[in-house]
Amino acid sequence: MKTGMISLALAGLLMASQAMAQEARTLRLGMQGTAGDPQFEGVTEAARIIKEKSGGRLTLEIFPNSQLGTFTEMMEQVTLGELDFTLNPFGGMDAWVPRAVLASTAYVVGDFDHLQKIIASDWGKGIVDEMRTEHKWRMVDSWYFGTRHTTAKKPIEKPADFAGMKLRVPNSAPLLTWAKAMGASPTPVAFAEVYLALQTNQVDGQENPLPIIDSMKFTEVQSHVSLTGHLVQDQVILMSEDTWNALEPADQKVVMEAFEAGGALNDKLVSDKEANLVSDFRERGITVVEPDKAAFQEAMKPVYADLDAKFGADTVKTLLDLR
User: Fold this and answer.
1) CB–CB of 39/143 below 8 Å?
2) Dihedral sign of CA atoms 178, 182, 183, 185 in order
3) Contact indicator for 281, 225 with CB cutoff of 8 Å
4) Is the per-residue pLDDT at 20 higher than 60?
5) Is the pTM of this model over 0.70?
6) Any idea of the CA torsion for 67, 71, 74, 80, to the nearest 10 degrees?
């Protein structure tokens, strides 16, 4: 009798351990960012919380530095359910949801808080819903990536200061459009070659978020940093809809809370770094220019008119009014 009870107890323990093993799951996140940058620190914090709050049943494995492919390839992997998470800018969703381009058009977004209002608006929710229903990308959170500014060997205080400048911009339609609207001559240069292009005057200036301007040492060959603030960018945490549906509601809650906490850490790291760099540049003898953005936004009005014609009258104004 005692032997039978022991056997039953052992069988129960075995079944329980098998059930726990079945529930255990490793989630995978692929990203372009590198170890040590704010986004990596944020997802690392999210991974810690996921493991802690799930009692170790859920773990998040992080693949930085484009180990799993380009951002386009990782997006496709999320659609297919081969990858659980990736990151991509909200405005960068325009390749799949064309009207999202407005969120990456110069001076439409005033700051990160404004971007959050745009995403939470009916217009933004429509894009979020289309991402989920058409591509199986569930938006978990939006994290601050940075605001893009301009460097040159002269101050940039008004659109006329861009006239005739050979300005390096990425091969991105919204940024090419912005450069042309300012009167600059957009010049394509591979990112790794920008420093040399600036040093040899192949290009007269470039634009990037302040942390990148600093890390790439562009101020060694550019005397002025002009805070043009033409584009505010985020990184959206995208989750496979199949993965989301496979999780129990309690685990869905754990995931949301973890990425919210990771986002708070990321946002603080980026904001603090940007604020510190402005004073740091000045201490290093670099001239930091704070232009009036109104004149730059005025120069974008023909671009806004084209976007309204394509996506609906007063669409740009509707988004601007959310500030």
Assistant:
1) yes
2) negative
3) yes
4) no
5) yes
6) -170
